[in-house]
Amino acid sequence: MIDDQTIEAVFRGRLGGFVLDTAFTLPAHGLTALFGPSGCGKTSVLRCIAGLTRIADGLCRVGGDTWQDKTTFRPPHMRPIGYVFQEASLFPHLSVRRNLTYGAPHKSTAAGVKPAVGFEETVDLLGIGHLLDRAPAKLSGGERQRVAIGRALLSDPRLLLMDEPLSALDAETKEEILPFLERLHARLAVPILYVSHAISEVERLADHLVLMNEGKVLAAGRLGDLQSDPRLPLALSRDASVSLDATVEGHDSTYGLLELSVRGGRFLVPAPAGCSGEMRRLSIKAGDVSLSLQPSSGSTILNILPCRILSHTRRGEHEVVAVLGLGSDGMGAHLLARMTRRSWTMLHLGDGQPLFAQVKSVALR
Length: 365
Ligand SMILES: Nc1ncnc2c1ncn2[C@@H]1O[C@H](COP(=O)(O)OP(=O)(O)OP(=O)(O)O)[C@@H](O)[C@H]1O
What we know:
Helix content: 10-25%
Bound molecules: adenosine-5'-triphosphate
Family: Belongs to the ABC transporter superfamily.
GO molecular function, one term: ABC-type transporter activity
Shape: globular
Radius of gyration: 23 Å
CATH superfamily of the largest domain: P-loop containing nucleotide triphosphate hydrolases
Organism: Consotaella salsifontis
Distance between the termini: 35 Å
Largest sheet: 6 strands, mixed
Order of helices and strands: EEEHEEEHHHHEHEHEEHHEEEEEEEEHE
Number of helices: 10
Oligomer: single chain
CATH class of the largest domain: Alpha Beta
Strand order of the largest sheet: 6-7-8-3-9-10
Strand content: 35-45%
Number of strands: 19
GO cellular component, one term: membrane
CATH topology of the largest domain: Rossmann fold
Number of domains: 2
Structural class: alpha+beta
Keywords: ATP-binding, Cell inner membrane, Cell membrane, Membrane, Molybdenum, Nucleotide-binding, Translocase, Transport
């Protein structure tokens, strides 16, 4: 159903020799990742949504507003978007403060409409308070990108478009920025479309996913649903994992273990204490989950959870990937377990079977 809480995007046509044939509808909240291999058309979709690329057979509706259809084409400056590119392009002659306020919509504040996110909050969220009087030339790559994100937010967008905002940064700087993106995502109401070909970023940040290949949308939906769908390439990839949104239940300070609950189970994860009820993202790799017919005792494995096999798929000739539903009824959150075909055969495993999923704590992120 299309309502004012969705982003609807349909773009069908040619860009030179490249054919774009995409259609998806997603909730207009949270972070949606456009994910797929290099050259599959992710940036092209983002540019179409921004109005920077015009494809005649296109439809773009955001939160009930039509930006493009058969009779409408709003130019980019009439679309309330913030755009963050791979490389931060700040005005070199302006201070960080003036870069941040450059696109701020003075007229809406003058009219008494408060922007969704204020200057102080943006500066605080991105940790750039100490940089306000600096020139862009005196910033590190990571600091520049944080300022670029701040500038995009302060234009009071209804949609934030981020095109591989971390890809021009080294691994260490990426790690430095990811927590800021997590904070933005947790604290801001503005929906984010985030282009990436790094699955680690998607696992950490995304609520929803648009999976693309060769100009087409393979699937669109909730991240966990697509990660654990054995018909899609993610579940069968070597690094397949499932991201679960978990609630902090407690902390064992003697051993530094955080207790997290998900639908149908609880996990102990090495992590500092958190506030009870706080949400955390738990990422569980298919290769770190083993299966047992009995709950094993005398094992170093701390997480042993009743579950059921919901379905299974062969991975190549000699491996099997099973989709598990947590809980003795199998109705809880889904996990993936990857194992040898030999283990699958020796234990006589099959769909519907109740058993135990075992996950080492130290394997959890
Ligand atoms: N205006 C255009 N004219 C001709 N070809 C185009 C145009 N825009 C994009 N393309 C082509 O469309 C294809 C998809 O490009 P796009 O940048 O959207 O992919 P991508 O998935 O974002 O890739 P990457 O992850 O490498 O950034 C490429 O082959 C590109 O050369």
